Amino acid sequence: MSRAKLTQFVLDHLIWFIVLLVVIFFAFNTNNFLTGQNLINILLHTSVLGVMTIGQAIVLMSGNFDLSAEGNVSLVTVLAAWLMLPYQRSAVAQAGGIGWELSPYIVIPFMLAVGTLAGWINGMLITRLRMNNFIVTLAMQLILRGIAYVISKGAYMPGTPALFNWLGSGHIGPIPVSIIVTLLLFVLFGAILSYTRFGRELYAVGSNKEAARASGFKPHITITQAYMIGGFMAAIAGWMLLGRIQSSDPELGAGMTLETVAAAVIGGVALTGGSGTIVGAFAGVLLLSVIDDGLNLVNVNPYWITGVRGLIILVALLLEAQKVRVKIRAAKEKPKIPGEDPLSQTNVIAK
Asked: Which of 326, 319, 322 is closest to 349 using CA atoms?
């Protein structure tokens, strides 16, 4: 392999080299890091955050943000518990349910539909009314969590049915169901972005909305679809999280939105849209999970963990930025082929 090809390979897979370096560091500094149980713990942490990151990555690829994801998680989990649990009159359990005791077979599709609907509303407000995506989704986060507080009265609602909890707490052999489902979702959406018309439209719209429109694409539809996928994935993450802890709380999901943005971006998804992969986003989620687990195992002072984690994320982002600069420089220095359309050089640089 030539030096140029080796350099290109390293640049294209830089995030995985960063993950490997972090894994090696923690493996040499603790005896428990590479044990089977700890690796499962890392993947368990990856599951909920990973599912939310898939939705966030797709929205980012369209050239937009979705800050409503954690509010979506809050609302769908509260709704699910509220509909499934029996009514309780005690002051402590004032939000124990409305007494319908609906089957999970009804509640699960309903909560997924609510999440998708929230995403559709985001998309319509942004594309049809031309409202700012940052402000719209921030407002939607507050609205959704506010509704969750109204329904729950701020109380916990424990005791969700075993059938509902299967996604978050079930196992297939020694492997938790949530890990298997998360990996399958990453594979599924990776294939969708690589091999379907929606994937091509998403990258085109995120790169240049006007050029995509001139090519016959419909940016308003693509962006709305991206937000609907984001809402759907947030609802699945909520189902997974509620099934794991088996008690709803209107604060579930709080703070996870920025984590999903960080995971997607350090995995190579551009904040400006039009580039990135689901595989890269998975690497970003894995890096955050490995950092959290490793810092706990090496007994870093809990007061330092957040800061150290932020520093590592910042280093990863700086390395990703350097990767982009090197690629642009290499594209500019590439010898021009006689007769080649000069616009093709621009396309290479843009990619």
From this structure: 326
- 79 φ, ψ to 5°? -60, -45
| Encoded amino acid at 55, one letter | G
DSSP 46-98: HHHHHHHHHHHHHHHHTT-----HHHHHHHHHHHHHHHHSPP--SSTTTTS--
The partner residues of 175 in beta bridges, in order of sequence, read 172
Output the pTM of the full model.
0.88
- State the Cα–Cα distance between residues 74 and 228, nearest whole angstrom: 17
Rounded distance between C-alpha atoms, residue 73 and residue 237, angstroms:
7
What lies within 8 Å, CB to CB, of 306 at 6+ separation is: none
Count of helix runs (H) and strand runs (E) in the chain: 15, 4
157: how many CB neighbours lie within 10 A of its CB?
A: 27
Domain boundaries, the chain: 3-350
For residues 164 and 84, the answer to whether their CB atoms sit within 8 Å is: yes
Task: Determine the pLDDT at residue 272.
Answer: 85
DSSP, res 276: -
pLDDT of residue 158: 87
Q: How many CB atoms lie within 10 A of CB 48?
A: 24
The tokens of 269 are what?
A: 């998804």
Can you tell me the distance from the alpha carbon of 224 to that of 128, in angstroms, rounded to the nearest whole number?
10
Q: For the chain, how many residues are written?
A: 351
3-350 belongs to CATH 3.40.30: no
- Nearest alpha-carbon partner for 118 in 262, 17, 234: 234
Single-letter amino acid code for the residue at 338: P
* Residue 26: alpha-carbon gap to chain centroid: 25
pLDDT means per 10 residues, the chain with 351 residues, are: 69 84 92 91 94 96 94 96 77 61 95 97 96 96 95 86 95 95 97 95 94 92 97 97 93 89 88 90 93 88 78 74 68 58 40 39
CA neighbours closer than 13 Å in the CB half-sphere of residue 153? 11
- DSSP letter for 300, please: -
Q: How far is CA 159 from the centre of its chain?
A: 27
